[in-house]
Design goal:
122 residues; alpha/beta; Transcription Regulator spoIIAA; 5-stranded mixed β-sheet
Length: 122
C-alpha cells in the first residue's frame, strides 16, 4: 500500500502515511477516500507522515504531492497541519518548498516524529 490514513476522532485528527513510491494520482485517490469516510470531519487537523521518504527523493515529486495537498486544502477547516520527516536533509528540502508558497507556509510545521506532531496538535 502506497498510502493509508487513520482517523483519530477523539483527537480531532487525521493521520496520513505516505510511502515514497506514491504518485500524485495515488495521493489524490487517498484524499478522496479520506473525504468519503463517514468518520471524516472538516475540522480535523492533519498529520502527513513522509518518514518513508529519503533524502534522495526527487524534489519535483514532493512538489507534485504539495499540489494535491493544496488542491484539497479547502475541504478542511483545520488550524494546523504537520509533516513528519525522518531526516534533516529531507526536512530542509520540504521546508524550502513550504516557504515558497505563501498560502500554506503559516499552516504547516515539520517534525521528526508523529508523537511530536501530535503533541503540537493537542
Amino acid at each position: 500500500m502506497k498510502g493509508s490514513y487513520n482517523i483519530l476522532s477523539n483527537n480531532n485528527l487525521l493521520v496520513e502515511i505516505l510511502k515514497k513510491t506514491i504518485s500524485a494520482n495515488e495521493y489524490t485517490k487517498l484524499k478522496i477516500d479520506e473525504f468519503q469516510d463517514k468518520r471524516f470531519n472538516r475540522s480535523f487537523n492533519l498529520i502527513t507522515d513522509l518518514s518513508d521518504f529519503d533524502k534522495n527523493i526527487d524534489k519535483n515529486k514532493i512538489k507534485d504531492l504539495f499540489i494535491v495537498f493544496k488542491e484539497n486544502k479547502g475541504k478542511f477547516i483545520r488550524n494546523k497541519s504537520a509533516l513528519v520527516v525522518s531526516n534533516k536533509e529531507m526536512q530542509n528540502a520540504i521546508n524550502s518548498i513550504i516557504k515558497e508558497d505563501k498560502k500554506i507556509y503559516k499552516e504547516i510545521k515539520t517534525f521528526t516524529s508523529i508523537e511530536n506532531a501530535k503533541q503540537w496538535m493537542l
